[in-house]
Specification:
Elements (H helix, E strand, L loop, with lengths): L7 E5 L4 H12 L3 E8 L10 H15 L3 E5 L1 H17 L6 H20 L4 E3 L4 E5 L3 E2 L2 E2 L14 E5 L16 H4 L2 E2 L7 H10 L21 H5 L8 E5 L4 E5 L14 E2 L10 E6 L4 E5 L6 E4 L4 E4 L4 E9 L10 E4 L6 E8 L5 E5 L10 E6 L2 E8 L1
Parallel strand pairs: 1-2, 1-4, 2-3, 4-9, 10-14
Antiparallel strand pairs: 5-8, 6-7, 8-22, 10-11, 11-12, 13-14, 15-16, 17-20, 17-22, 18-19, 18-21, 19-20, 21-22
């Protein structure tokens, strides 16, 4: 394979329309395409349709007349995604398993194995874009039209996908330059409607298939029910910001800040609005709620006590800056959840391991979640909330 003049791309075929169109576009652009289905871990109690997805991926590969492989990364997924998620919840944090899935499986194990087998690149159906410096002039990108030529000597920008309703750059903030130089996102310059049209044009067998939902590879699972197989339920108090008992819950670790469901309010007036989780006391198993989600009151989960904190400042750990470190006193925007609002902010780099995000208005975000920083459409990177 290494003797061919064509560039070799291993495409992660999930069985869905996005990855199928990605493979079709790359073949049309004269790449030598190899379809790869990634097997991952599934718990015994969860209904698994992995074999059906694999068969759909195989049908796509057969239709496109490309080789088809199956990579089994069950152990990687179990350790780096599932176990990580469970352990984070046990400590009272709210992890983002999709970020870890992309980091450890798709652009970790998959990328490494593909390159070891002679691939020049890997590609996925992510709605994101990457441009090298040669395609970036004065803060503007050259006209889009598919995969840009790669030059490993140039730096790479990670950019939002064209379709704001599908953009997935939020999940990709852990990528590094050496990885981006080997990754292609063929549909990042397209809207979902355009992808559907192309799927029909290419007569792909999954053209009419519905989009998958839920956690990376696990699908649309009830997260609390999933966690209860690994974390024991423990009934506890729900109190308001004044410390008054207003209800109960079945385990503080199953809840996250900003949530408004999953707990029971027993003392509620006829004019009361919805209650939002604004804090958690892990040691005492107490959930704090308020009808004002932006009240700015939280709990220090490490000390297990009530404390007033500055809701305008969030400290980050495990930070990664894709292209360059953000400048002080420069205005950026940040997402605190997938498809969430872009909040105006500034970044303060205090040390190699300590970063603060200074928001222009108060935000409430749970420890363990990802904050992703943008300079207009360019994803600069991010970190995990301490």
């Amino acid at each position: 394979m290494s003797n061919t003049k064509k560039k070799i791309v291993f495409v992660g075929l999930s069985g869905g329309v996005d990855s199928a169109v990605s493979a079709a576009l790359l073949k049309k652009q004269n790449y030598e395409v190899v379809g790869v289905f990634i097997k991952t871990w599934h718990p015994e109690f969860l209904v698994c349709n992995e074999e059906e997805e694999r068969m759909d991926a195989m049908r796509v590969a057969a239709h496109l007349d490309i080789p088809f492989l199956t990579f089994d990364f069950s152990d990687v997924y179990k350790k780096e995604v599932a176990d990580y998620m469970i352990n984070e919840y046990k400590t009272g944090r709210t992890p983002n398993p999709d970020v870890m899935c992309n980091k450890e499986v798709k652009f970790g194990a998959f990328l490494k194995k593909a390159l070891s087998m002679g691939a020049d690149f890997v590609a996925t159906g992510h709605y994101a874009q990457e441009f090298s410096e040669q395609n970036f002039k004065g803060g503007r990108f050259r006209p889009k039209g598919g995969v840009m030529p790669k030059n490993s000597a140039l730096k790479t920008f990670l950019v939002k996908g064209i379709d704001p309703s599908k953009d997935q750059s939020y999940f990709l903030w852990t990528l590094k330059q050496e990885q981006l130089s080997k990754i292609l996102f063929p549909i990042g310059y397209l809207k979902k409607t355009e992808v559907r049209i192309l799927a029909k044009k290419f007569k792909l067998p999954v053209a009419e298939k519905k989009d998958s939902q839920g956690i990376c590879f696990l699908g649309a699972v009830d997260l609390k029910e999933f966690l209860k197989h690994y974390i024991k339920s423990k009934k506890g108090k729900v109190v308001n910001e004044k410390g008054e008992d207003v209800g109960y819950h079945d385990g503080v670790v199953f809840h996250t800040l900003g949530e408004r469901h999953g707990f029971t309010i027993t003392k509620k007036g006829s004019t009361d609005g919805a209650y939002y989780v604004i804090g958690k006391d892990i040691k005492k198993n107490i959930l704090v709620v308020s009808q004002s989600p932006d009240v700015g009151l939280t709990l220090d989960t490490r000390q297990g006590r009530m404390s007033n904190v500055d809701p305008d400042v969030q400290r980050l750990e495990q930070t990664n800056w894709i292209l360059k470190i953000p400048k002080p006193n420069k205005n950026y925007t940040a997402q605190i959840r997938y498809h969430g609002e872009f909040f105006p902010c500034q970044i303060l780099i205090k040390s190699k391991t300590e970063v603060e995000v200074l928001f222009k208005k108060p935000v409430i975000i749970a420890s363990g979640q990802s904050i992703v920083v943008y300079d207009k459409d360019v994803c600069l990177g991010g970190g995990v909330v301490v």
